[in-house]
Amino acid sequence: MPGERRPADRTGDGPPADLTSDGPPAGQRVRGLPADLTSDGPPAGQRVRGVTLAYLGVPVAGIVPPLAVYLVSWRRSAFVRGHAAEALRAASAATLYGVCLLILAVMLALDSIKVAVIVAGPLAVALWLVVVVLCARAARAARRGDSYEFPGWLRVSQRARASQRARASQRARPFHDRG
User: Fold this and answer.
1) Who contacts 135 (Cβ-Cβ below 8 Å, separation ≥6)?
2) 105-129 burial: b if 16+ Cβ within 10 Å, else e
3) 8 forms bridges with which residues in the sheet?
């Protein structure tokens, strides 16, 4: 009967069966959430390919691939939009790090080109390798249908700074005041 609670599982040590549901019944949406975020399993193949292109294009072409994916799909899919925005944040941060590295190399080259190459070359390679590894991880998570968040030092957004401030204020409070 509707409104009647089902009994707990036979062993008696679990919660009632109606409280163990993992989400809405198949074919139903949760009010207020886009259909992409409430569906079971990974999203459709074409959406995953677009997200993978956005992530894996960052080490090769910088900001252009995630920006293109974001602009093409910003109204169609919350899943693709979220991942493309995350890839765009990471690409922006990597570009800013690259510009800083270029400034460092130019300043060192004013004194000695050899020193500039010795210092800036390995730093540029290390930055590129880190971006490749993190973008590959993000693309793998997107193919599984999961979300991925880059480390705070490789993101350019207010949300990252707000969460860092919240963590800093949490550490600053005495232990007995924490809730």
Assistant:
1) 55, 56, 58, 59, 87, 90
2) beebeeeeeeebeebbeeebeebee
3) 16
Higher pLDDT, 22 or 80: 80
- For the record, the structure tokens of 21 come out as 């549901």
* C-alpha to C-alpha distance for 81 and 86, rounded to whole angstroms: 9
pTM of the model: 0.64
Cα distance between residue 106 and residue 120, in whole Å: 9
Euclidean distance between CA atoms 90 and 73, whole angstroms: 18
